[in-house]
Design brief:
heterodimer; A: mainly alpha; B: alpha/beta; Rossmann fold; 2 domains; four-stranded antiparallel beta sheet
């Protein structure tokens, strides 16, 4: 046991030495980028804190239902984080615990399989968790501020509640990966991932069907009398056996002086995480090495298919008016995407989540007459669409340049200019994004009963958002490339990816704020024609949107292009 | 033709290439010889536009790589020292991709890919994904990609690494054939025998500086004048041999 811990610590110590050496050898440009990243991160944290603090303060002020709503939001948030962490741990483990040269090297040393597994499992948890947690931090701190947490209560929540909470999805994700490779000799991981994605979709659909979280808004805004029946159904809809419920309960109970109940939930979290670790390490002792061997063999037994010779190279099937180099890179990108299960599985899951969101919009009240609520719902939908687009662009567009990896030499040493490579990456992502976002805008507006000017405003805003968010991700992906990393999830959650996420979210927030005021005034004008048409507000909003979108489109692309041109390959 | 005019490049404080000038004419097989870390790969990356020199000029067929990179790169076929490929593409798809980048018309490209697959013995595995290939198989794909657009200049970094004897022979024959057709070939290697066997002219580089340049006969004469052979001269020019202290490593 002592030797196990010593060896594990020995390996971990050299990891910290490598990190220290990275910081010591940072160039001036890297330090500058880091400082900018920290500054923007602080700004985002402050903005997020302010935003959530305002929401929670408002809810806290509502008698009876405020606390309930707040806890429901927190519980739903943790549920989403839990699912994201399971997926993120599963996908990341493929490149940390399995297909990683570092793991292969460690397994060739006298370190035991358990030691190697322990070291790589810690890496996996850190890589998969930090980005999600940093984004969720402002909400947790804001909740604590509203509920007036003492300093020890924050410390208690972070170390005794949050830490065991992230371990549980980590164990689940890694166990699924282990199982997946273990049976890969019989069932291909591709088929298995499809089944897992389907199961997840069914689970989420069931959760929405049973819990109907969107119906909450209806209950609150339309009729306070239905609240009692809603409160009665809360016991069924909150799933008390899920860690996301336990963690939201600890937040609720910590300042309510309900020591025993609090202790029960904390112990539930700690004991479940210890049990999960115990089961995982038990499984790893028996199956990790076997599953690792299977992961090495996976793909090598595929028979060569030489029977059919294609007369026309496949990329020429793309439209002929596209230049040859453009088609070559585009066809290559499409093939690589379709052949990477981690990529399309996550993309499909996000698309299905979008569809579930759209289907659930039918629970929203569409017969409301109050322009305030009508505009609010319209803009909440707009903000959510923006948030989804920002998530999609950072997850799938930002890693595009980095995913060229060490094979990028082939393009850089060819006659294709970096500018053209940029255009391929931009247009391919933009067209897909525009399609998704316009469909999202149309269906959601139609379901919410928003028509006329609000619908047009939504279409235009979504078009602008698609251009800006794609440019941001393409440009920033080139400013902060990670050519050494093959996992797109890890690239998206790198420091550059986080910075892009933050800038994208701030951009979406600004778009919503700029568009909200004239839209609200316009709705009031429609309801009461004696109130003048908000000409000035509309012109001002259009001008501000123009400046904002011009900046977020041109600046990142220019910076990215410059960075790529100045780089040695 | 390749022209390097007073090329210099540093990594931080380390001078990787210093004031390097040389010319490789059409039809010439030029060997760029030097120990590890001498500046060979840096020089090659400058020629192929993967790096920019701090000063000096690299020209391909009279075209400045820094000022007209696209036009210059159109003339080059490049084989890097490590054959990184897109792992999820097959060899055939990779060759299609390479041909597309250089704008090879599709009928011509199909025929060339078939010819290259036959030539390098890739037919048995050209439709499998690159992630399954050995180092040698990857090297063959990269060679194929360098030849697919019929380049005027071939730049090859460590050509024989990972190749089996049959493929080595094939590559040597192909390079001689291309040279006889007027293609300029720039080969970097740290193995003297490779340069000796294949190249008509050799440049020796050490610590980023060109320390010797001439035909094989000229270099042999220079070595003989100093009572040495070519290997002795090469070792002397690149820092000599440090006698290893093997004391204590006698199997105890």
């Amino acid at each position: 046991m002592v030797s196990m811990v010593n060896n594990t610590l020995h390996i971990l110590r050299y990891k910290t030495v490598a990190i220290g050496s990275f910081f010591k050898n940072m160039s001036g440009e890297h330090v500058l980028r880091l400082l900018v990243g920290i500054l923007v991160g602080c700004g985002f944290f402050a903005g997020g804190l302010f935003f959530f603090f305002k929401i929670f303060s408002y809810l806290n002020g509502l008698v009876d239902i405020g606390q309930l709503l707040m806890n429901k939001i927190i519980s739903l948030g943790f549920m989403a984080i839990f699912i994201m962490l399971v997926i993120s741990n599963l996908v990341t483990s493929i490149t940390t615990l399995y297909r990683s040269p570092e793991t292969a090297y460690l397994l060739s040393t006298p370190a035991s399989f358990r030691q190697v597994f322990a070291v790589r499992f810690i890496d996996n948890i850190i890589f998969s968790t930090w980005a999600v947690m940093i984004l969720g931090l402002p909400a947790i701190v804001a909740y604590g501020m509203v509920r007036q947490f003492a300093v020890w209560e924050y410390i208690f929540e972070f170390f005794l509640v949050l830490a065991p909470f992230v371990i549980i999805p980590g164990c689940i994700g890694v166990a699924i990966a282990m199982f997946m490779f273990l049976i890969s000799r019989r069932v291909s991981p591709r088929t298995l991932l499809i089944w897992l994605a389907l199961l997840l979709v069914l689970g989420i659909t069931a959760y929405f069907k049973i819990g109907q979280p969107s119906s909450l808004a209806f209950n609150v805004v339309s009729d306070f009398r239905v609240l009692n029946s809603y409160l009665g159904s809360m016991g069924v809809t909150s799933f008390p056996f899920l860690p996301s419920f336990w963690i939201s309960e600890t937040l609720r109970l910590i300042s309510a002086e309900a020591g025993r109940a609090l202790l029960a939930y904390v112990l539930a979290l700690i004991s479940t995480s210890l049990l999960a670790l115990n089961i995982l390490f038990g499984l790893a002792d028996r199956y990790y090495y076997q599953s690792w061997l299977a992961s090495m063999e996976y793909g090598s037994g595929v028979p060569a298919k030489v029977s059919v010779r294609r007369k026309i190279p496949s990329f020429f099937r793309l439209p002929e008016w596209l230049p040859s180099d453009f088609r070559a890179v585009l066809a290559k990108d499409l093939k690589l995407f379709s052949r990477e299960p981690a990529q399309w599985a996550q993309f499909s899951i996000l698309l299905v989540l979008l569809i579930i969101y759209l289907l659930n919009l039918k629970y929203f009240p569409t017969e409301m007459k109050d322009p305030f609520w009508k505009t609010l719902i319209g803009f909440t939908n707009f903000a959510f669409s923006g948030f989804m687009l920002a998530t999609l662009s950072v997850r799938f567009v930002f890693p595009n340049i980095s995913l060229e990896g060490k094979s990028f030499w082939a393009i850089v040493s060819s006659p294709m200019s970096i500018r053209r490579v940029f255009w391929v990456k931009f247009w391919s992502a933009f067209i897909i994004f525009l399609l998704i976002s316009e469909v999202l805008a149309f269906v959601s507006n139609a379901m919410l009963g928003l028509r006329g000017a609000l619908m047009v405003l939504s279409f235009v805003s979504v078009l602008l958002m698609s251009v800006s968010l794609t440019s941001l991700s393409v440009g920033m992906g080139a400013v902060y490339p990670r050519f050494d990393e093959k996992n797109p999830g890890k690239i998206a959650s790198s420091a550059g990816g986080m910075l892009t996420t933050i800038i994208s979210l701030v951009y979406v927030g600004l778009m919503v704020i700029i568009a909200a005021l004239p839209a609200h005034r316009y709705t009031i004008h429609r309801m009461d024609p004696t109130i003048p048409f908000p000409r000035f507000e509309i012109i001002l909003a259009l001008a501000l949107m123009f400046i904002l979108n011009l900046t977020t489109t041109i600046v990142p692309l220019r910076l990215g292009l410059l960075s790529m041109r100045r780089r040695d390959y | 033709m390749i022209e390097l005019i007073n090329i210099s490049k540093s990594y931080g404080k380390k001078r990787a290439v210093e004031d390097l000038s040389l010319t490789v004419k059409g039809g010439e097989l030029f060997g760029f010889l030097g120990p590890n870390g001498a500046g060979k790969t840096t020089t090659i990356k400058i020629i192929t536009g993967l790096m920019r020199p701090e000063s000096g000029q690299a020209k391909i067929c009279g075209i400045d790589v820094a000022h007209q990179p696209e036009a210059a790169k159109m003339k080059i076929g490049y084989v890097p020292d490590t054959p990184y490929l897109y792992e999820k593409l097959t060899a055939r798809e990779y060759l299609e991709f390479a041909g597309g980048l250089y704008g090879v018309p599709h009928k011509e490209l199909s025929a060339r890919i078939e010819w290259l697959c036959d030539l390098f013995g890739m037919n048995g595995w050209a439709d499998r994904r690159c992630e399954e290939y050995s180092h040698g198989m990857r090297q063959k794909v990269v060679f194929g990609a360098a030849f697919v657009h019929e380049p005027a200049v071939l730049v090859i970094d460590e050509p024989m690494v990972g190749l089996d004897p049959q493929s080595m022979k094939l590559v040597k024959d192909m390079l001689r054939l291309y040279a006889s057709r007027g293609v300029s070939i720039f080969i970097s290697t740290h193995i003297l025998s490779v340069a000796e066997e294949m190249c008509s002219r050799i440049g020796v580089v050490n610590n980023g500086r060109l320390v010797a340049l001439g035909t094989l006969d000229e270099l042999r004469r220079e070595a003989a004048a100093e009572g040495d052979n070519l290997e002795g001269l090469f070792l002397k020019l690149t820092g000599g041999i440090k006698a290893a202290n093997l004391h204590g490593f006698d199997g105890q």
